[in-house]
Fold Phosphate ABC transporter ATP-binding protein.
Amino acid sequence: MTNAPHTRGKSKMAARDLDLFYGDAQALFNVDLDVMEREVTALIGPSGCGKSTFLRCLNRMNDTIDGVTISGKVTLDDRDIYDKIIDVVQLRARIGMVFQKPNPFPKSIFDNVAYGPRIHGLVNSRDELDEIVMTSLEKAGLLKEVKDRLASPATGLSGGQQQRLCIARAVAVSPEVILMDEPCSALDPIATAKVEELIDELRSNYTIVIVTHSMQQAARVSQRTAFFHLGKLVEVGETDQIFTNPRDERTKGYITGRFG
């Protein structure tokens, strides 16, 4: 795997002056962050520092939580995603999400991947649907393992296979951005390595943001790393620079294990 960034591209998503409150408690403070197109951006920091909260701002998942208020701006291709006229269902098709614990639907492997294209009206024929399912499974590195049992329940897959199925499900609606909230924390080392390899392959076509507790994982899969602490974005930069020459003492302290 290579950490070499592409020639510096454009910002695909951006947060500006982003504050978030759970009731009266402030969880994010004045976050300014650019997510670069077709790169993997890793969000690191201690538990409870705001990484996952920030990630959920990027596809408005926090809208589903009572008592959350947000101020500031989050853009996708320079368009404010919190604009009242934005269709949130369509937004979440453009910005897919893979959760910490694999969450396949209680359906067949085929129907898990076909679900998104069906509900978003992306297909007109069974042949078209078959092609989307097969292509998505191939992109998720899963087709060879499941091609003879597409009608079997997805819940019969191993944990690592279930997580790659969830990635296939996210990819099936042709998103532009894929958010991953600690996608390997429930997986063994072999399954983790497969998912990391997959992330490296996917970034040629997708913009990826990953929350990880593993600094080794951030170093392996990302081109840019953002360090959060106590709800604030402390530092962001090229991954190699963050890990070898952090500018902020708090980043240095976290990376060297002095706290966190």
User: Anything to note?
Assistant: The CA atoms of residues 59 and 92 lie 6 Å apart. The mean pLDDT is 94.
